[in-house]
Amino acid sequence: MKMLYSFRFLMPFVLALTVVAYGVPAKADKQLDEIAQKSNNPVSDIWLVLTSNNTSFLKGDFIRGTQVVSSTKLQPVITFPLLSGDYTLVTRTNFSFLSLPFDKEVKEFVNVAPNQFIGQGDLGAVLASPFGRHRGFGDMALLTMFAPRRDSGFMMAAGITQIFPTANDELLGQGKYQIGPAGMIARIGSGHGDPFDIDSWVIGLFPQHWWSVAGPDGRKFTNHSDIQYFISYKATPTWTIGASPEITIDWTADGGFADKVALPIGIGVSNVVRLGKIPFKWGIQGQYYLTGPERVRRQTNIKLFGAVFLPNLLTYKGALAANN
Q1: Spatial distance between the Cα atoms of 185 and 38, rounded to a whole number of angstroms
Q2: pTM for the full model?
């Protein structure tokens, strides 16, 4: 019952999904459909600027009541053609602005990695209330991947991911330069509207892992992973129903599976529209965490995002170029 009660925040999404499932009338726009198809592929050759906000509700043994974390990210995605245009080099830079329900003084006990909190020590040793509000810029991440240039079918991609210690202070980042492998495996359908046809679905995994290789000796060694799984049904060429939660793993954490792994499930909708002549993708997702460290744990999360698509001046001569 407790878990069902926690899903009460998903009711608006259920209503939206019902509308999409029974059909959304839209004007024919083949160029927009082409862009929507490309946007289903995390390593497509399109250029875009993605902005997202995650509002997370924290609970735990060391959380008084429910506390709110806000993480806003700006992610420009730039791609380059390789090997006569048959492959694509995808670069995605992640700039983040954080608003945390902690005073700056708790930096000795906790800090922030992409999409997760990392324990530095015994948070229970904080005698005074740690809660306040602390804001600033987090660490910057850079993902670089090599992928085939296609928009549907089975595909794989591989590359490296890096984290740079650019945070304002110790609470907002890990203080280490980190690097590791990244990959993707996916099946991206080219159809829509038939839930029993694999071509109406987008399914895949997008793992990243980081180890710290440089930085101050006083900061904790890092060894953590982010595994995004995505599954969505294309109800129309531009509307999708599904989710893309991110499983986070802190391999250095004490305890068992639930202490190391934050495992979310969720559901949401997205659509591609035009703002004037500019293609724009928006979406909303609700997520619930099945596991997580009991001391400081995300319980639920609401994700909002919007992406502006830009003309790829190097390769793409389709809808974006035609409308700019």
Answers
A1: 16
A2: 0.81
